[in-house]
Amino acid sequence: MQDYPSNMRKWTKSPAATQHFGVLLFEGFSNHCLANTVEPLRAANSLSGKDLYRWQILGLESAPVTSSSGLAVTPQERLGHARGDMLMVMPSYGFRDHVGWAVQTGLRAAASRFQVMTGLDTGSWLMAEAGLLDGYRATIHWEEITGFAERFPQVDAVRERHVTDRDRITCSGAMAAFDMVLEFIARDHGQALALEVAQLFMTRDSARSHGGLAGSRSSTVNRALALMQEHLEDPLPIPDIARRVGRTQKALEARMRADLGAGPAVVYRRMRLNLARKLASETSLPVSEIALRTGYADASAMTRAFRAEFGLSPSALRRAGD
């Protein structure tokens, strides 16, 4: 997968301050859960060209923490010294071994230094033991949901992929963690950026094309996106796309702006330029051929659009990747 230069222009709803996350690991944590949490954040930074998110790996102590598959990770900071916007509690396997006074005390103290507390996988159990989920709706890995509900009657335990209740977020597992982080990105910086992140990781909804965006809550928008993806080399007029999905151009425009934060013309252009960016960075095709494959009549027109979108030319992108 290509990691793009930091001078790529952002495509977000509005500028926002960098958010600081702490990821608290315990012995037996899941590599899968950790990667699904931090990699979408890294991708959002790369694709936007902005320092949208920062994260620290935390531990109760400074000694390395070993995952369930034997990967040792050295914390960057001890929990007692950390603060930020969100703390993600990630014990995963063997979580019952971590139930105790030290963990409860550490989590209660951290709740005053982090605006939001998030339990991933089985992290909900440790948060509940610390009294941090009393009166909240919460979920946990579904293998533990029955025991969780019985052990903590003061928590409204629900079988959902992830749950947000005020300043508490809980998540049921590694795959759900990826979805949860995508929702953070969409909420903070627009659905369009979240969809680009999903496409970068070839999630199921975005796997049909490497050209750009895919996947929306609106069936109308999804049908329009599918048509765009199928016609990157021979772009369809926007009125034709609207007609094919059974909407007026005005209605499609409104739906896309509401769902993606941008109109059809902008989304379509971005999809074509995403494909141009991929071809420029991962192939040796001449710029003239890239232009033809992305629906531009000549290379100079594509290069101008590319530079306006990403802040550098296809040739400069290739040099940056050398």
UniProtKB/TrEMBL annotation:
<protein>
    <submittedName>
        <fullName>GlxA family transcriptional regulator</fullName>
    </submittedName>
</protein>
<dbReference type="Pfam" id="PF12833">
    <property type="entry name" value="HTH_18"/>
</dbReference>
<keyword id="KW-0804">Transcription</keyword>
<dbReference type="InterPro" id="IPR009057">
    <property type="entry name" value="Homeodomain-like_sf"/>
</dbReference>
<dbReference type="InterPro" id="IPR018060">
    <property type="entry name" value="HTH_AraC"/>
</dbReference>
<dbReference type="InterPro" id="IPR052158">
    <property type="entry name" value="INH-QAR"/>
</dbReference>
<keyword id="KW-0805">Transcription regulation</keyword>
<feature type="domain" description="HTH araC/xylS-type">
    <location>
        <begin position="222"/>
        <end position="320"/>
    </location>
</feature>
<dbReference type="InterPro" id="IPR029062">
    <property type="entry name" value="Class_I_gatase-like"/>
</dbReference>
